[in-house]
Design brief:
InterPro entries: MetalloPept_cat_dom_sf (IPR024079), Peptidase_M10/M27/M57 (IPR024653). The chain is an alpha/beta fold and about 270 residues long. It has helices at about 35-45, 70-75, 110-125, 180-185, 190-205, 215-220, 265-274; strands spanning about 5-10, 10-15, 15-25, 55, 60, 65-70, 80-85, 90, 100-110, 130-135, 145-150, 155-165, 175-180, 210, 235, 255. Helix 3 (about 110-125) crosses helix 5.
Length: about 270
Amino acid sequence: MKNQAIFFLICLLAGSLITSCRKDNNQGSTDKPNISNDVLAQIKAKGFSTSNVHAVKDGYLVEGDIFLSSKDLSRKAQNTKVRVAKTEQYSTNNLVVALPRVITVKVVSLGSAFVQGTDLAIQRYNALGLRIRFQRITSGNADITIQGFYEGPSGGYITLGSSGFPTDAGDPFNLIEMNTHPYAYGSNPNVQYVGSVIQHEIGHCIGMRHTDYMDRSYSCGGDPVDEGDGGVGAVYLPGTPSDPDPNSWMLACSNGGNRTFNSNDIIALNYLYR
């Protein structure tokens, strides 16, 4: 999946894992400050690659697109991954509980493409018949708020959006941020493109990690990155194929176009939430 690669990030920030998605942009700094061996050991213990680690504000960027906060690096890794074939579906240890439940979503101060993209993502999830359903609301407090931020290219990439993983109490992560900078989605954002990014970020909010976490080169190109189990374990889902899975909605990189669930994605979501 080359052709304007989109990087969906896993970020660990303020006590929770935060994800964001980026696309290539040939602007920004490429400085690579030295990282201590202690920090590298903590990163490896979390199950992430220790190649090309970059120090950034309040933490570190790993695997080219994953932010880990300094505060939470020292916390013991407790993630569980759900494996589907050679490219793998992962969930965090924290999942949404108290099922069945309706998760409300509110879009705040964003344009019509983001509202329509949210409706598209919600429609796709609800069509699966899971024990979690999504409903967009326009007033009151929502379980997930989608709001904008404005940030230009940095370090050769531009952030498209960010989200996080469920809380220890079993609630979905409560915030998705979408970049309103023109370099992110252009002056006339494509609804299916925006909706696919929101769909991916919602996936993180309910506990999904990247499909090709164990080898990001599968969707991103470049050198293979394989950290083994990374100390987080693996659970294989019976009945899934053993061949590579090129179209998952949770791949680390895509071509920036329309992407929804494939059959293996549905198996993984059904395993967790049906």
